[in-house]
Specification:
Helix content is 0%, strand content 13%. A two-stranded antiparallel ribbon has the order 1-2. It contains no helices and two strands. It is an all-beta fold and 60 residues long. The chain starts with 48 loop residues before the first strand and ends with a strand.
Amino acid sequence: MREHDLQPKRRRRFVATTDSAHDQPIFANLTKDLVVDGPNRLWVADITYVAIAVGFVRIR
């Protein structure tokens, strides 16, 4: 490869998908100090988009 001045294409190890520099409110983690004593006692979700018949809608 050196003879032909070629270099491999390198893959990134990490792809940033979160934009932390935004003006939206940041909500407190209400489950931070909660002790869960069994399965299915606590469910946590983060829904941003919902599918509808004609595409997606964003939840704010």
